[in-house]
Specification:
Chain lengths: 86, 512
């Protein structure tokens, strides 16, 4: 165990994390809206229009393609399911 | 603990169906909770065996509402009772009980009383110091129940002698147990929190300091202030009780060190406490602190025959007594230490059985769906729901590890819907589990400590019934527990310590 682990997260984290186009993220698909996969991170929602329709609660990788800081929403390009996660 | 020992997420379709719907699967637990509140809260009867009957009645009444074959209901109870978590609690109690009674037989309390008078620790500071040492012990051995038992048996009488307020002192012991249960890598609740949230135990413990330390500093300050405000006069018996044995009993700090050392080195709790037990028995005999018969004795009423022959033998004879006037029995600290926990052991087995009924019957799933739809609609509200939900379940279910296992799938589902990472989820789950298991009079930690306390009048001539701390009065004084819940409520509202899955993913689960 590295000592760094003791000092992670001693901060106040926003409820609407912001991302930029080009960011590659790993997160759970949290639901579907009108057939489009949604990744909800806090109260930020990123839609993955090209993701399959059976990825609920699965850990996936995606690249942010657009992000609107104003309403904390964006879209992303689906890259794949993270192996080893169910 | 391996992953296969943990319950699965709530099944989509209930294996056992109830008249009145899925929520009725909560009936056995609901009856038990109502029984516990009436018995221990309203009537002030702290009898654990009484709670066992409450749980039995709950399970029987629940069965009457099962649709179709009752055998499936019975199977589910068995399934729940054979979960490893129940066995973990049973083992921790039996071993810790034997250990605590054995170092007490060796005069550890007398040593503590001597040390506190030599160091001039008055009644005012005693609760604060008790909190620190209980926290250290619990962090070392990982069992808050064991700590509550050991400190109530060993340190509580010393504090009462010095004039510390019994209720405040009991609160300080329970606070220390909360701290250790929350932080210790070998604590069963820590392990459950990490494993159910898919996070490595080392990472979970490391990420826990930012909450535990804030609460502990506030709790310590509160014990210093309250200790001064509530301190009484030392009892007259202090000189005779403490002065008689002197400091020699303090060698049992070595026994405690043996437990903490082996536990911190990552050994199993059975091994760690066994080492402590072996060291304490050896010290008692080698230094003449207690005769072998104080730790184990076979009392026979027969003056002749085999008992008399064995009594004459050199080694074996020291644990055999011939007492024609007494009743034939086995005794000694090993016996009484383990025996004191038998009712609690039965209770925990029945409760995990009832929790399994609620899980399989869909009661948990029904609550989860309702929460996601109506309450946990933003990340702040979801985290607040996780904190309050864990707190309520643990406030109502006696055995906190059982309660934690029951609520763990909710925390996982709610948290994942907002991509809250595994460390954060495990921390919310364990802190509120640890805190609430030691506050209310029906909480397992309070009962475990109280079970040890009510034996004190038999152990010390000077200890009267009036010196017992009422378990129903202790709840406002478990400062660390309350501060821990408060820290997490504030953390949920402000995002203090919040981490998302894309920020940092928890590593794979490992044993320690």
């Amino acid at each position: 165990m590295s000592l760094g682990k003791f000092f992670e997260g001693w901060t106040f984290r926003t409820n609407r994390p912001a991302y930029a186009a080009g960011d590659e993220l790993t997160a759970y698909v949290t639901g579907y809206a009108d057939g489009t996969a949604q990744v909800r991170i806090g109260d930020t929602i990123i839609a993955l229009p090209d993701a399959d329709d059976d990825l609920g609660d699965q850990l996936v990788r995606f690249r942010v393609t657009e992000f609107d800081d104003g309403d904390s929403t964006g879209t992303g390009e689906f890259l794949g399911v993270v192996e080893g996660d169910t | 603990m391996s992953e296969t020992d943990l319950p699965d997420d709530p099944p989509d379709e209930s294996r056992v169906e109830f008249y009145g719907g899925r929520v009725m699967s909560a009936l056995p637990l609901a009856i038990f909770i109502a029984w516990a509140i009436v018995q221990s809260g309203l009537l002030g009867i702290g009898d654990t065996s009484g709670l066992v009957i409450g749980m039995l009645v709950g399970l029987i009444v629940g069965m009457l509402f099962v649709k179709g074959n009752w055998k499936s209901y019975a199977d589910v109870i068995f399934e729940g009772m054979t979960q490893r978590v129940a066995a973990t609690a049973v083992v921790a109690w039996l071993w810790a009980g034997m250990f605590a009674d054995t170092i007490q037989a060796g005069g550890f309390v007398d040593g503590l009383v001597w040390a506190s008078s030599a160091a001039d620790v008055g009644a005012a500071l005693f609760p604060a110091l008790t909190f620190i040492f209980a926290a250290l012990l619990a962090t070392g051995i990982g069992t808050g129940y064991g700590t509550a038992v050991a400190f109530t048996s060993l340190v509580f009488p010393a504090g009462v002698l010095l004039g510390a307020d019994p209720v405040l002192l009991f609160g300080a012991i329970l606070s220390g147990a909360v701290f250790g249960d929350n932080l210790a890598p070998v604590s069963d609740t820590t392990i459950v929190s990490a494993v159910t949230q898919d996070a490595d135990i080392g990472g979970v413990v490391a990420s826990r300091f930012k909450y535990a330390l804030v609460a502990a500093v506030l709790a310590l300050a509160s014990y210093i202030v309250a200790g001064q405000a509530m301190a009484g006069e030392p009892l007259d018996v202090a000189a005779s009780a403490g002065g008689g044995a002197g400091p020699l009993g303090l060698v049992h700090l070595l026994s405690i060190l043996a437990v903490i050392g082996t536990a911190v080195a990552g050994r199993h709790i059975i091994e760690a406490v066994s080492w402590g037990l072996i060291v304490s028995v050896a010290l008692n005999i080698a230094l003449g602190l207690a005769p072998a018969s104080a730790m184990l004795v076979f009392r026979s009423t027969s003056e002749s025959g085999i008992a008399a022959t064995l009594n004459g033998l050199p080694v074996l004879g020291s644990v055999i007594e011939i007492a024609p006037d007494a009743s034939a029995t086995v005794g000694g600290s090993l016996y009484t230490g383990a025996l004191g926990f038998f009712p609690l052991i039965v209770l925990v087995l029945l409760i995990v059985g009832a929790a399994q009924v609620m899980r399989v019957g869909g009661g948990f799933a029904a609550i989860e769906e309702w929460l996601l739809e109506h309450v946990a609609t933003t990340v702040r509200r979801a985290e607040t729901t996780m904190v309050i939900g864990t707190a309520i379940v643990n406030a109502t279910i006696t055995i906190n590890t059982a309660a934690e296992i029951a609520i763990a799938p909710f925390i996982r589902t709610l948290g994942q819907r907002f991509n809250i990472n595994g460390y954060r989820r495990a921390n919310i789950l364990d802190a509120n589990t640890s805190a609430l298991g030691y506050i209310f009079p029906w909480g397992g930690g309070v009962l475990a400590g109280y079970a040890a306390m009510i034996q004190l009048p038999q152990q010390f001539d000077w200890f009267t019934e009036a010196m017992l701390a009422n378990p129903a009065a202790v709840w406002p004084y478990v400062f660390h527990g309350w501060f821990l819940v408060a820290v997490f409520l504030i953390a949920a509202w402000t995002g203090y310590g919040l981490e998302y899955v894309p920020d940092r993913q928890s590593e794979e689960v490992a044993r320690v």
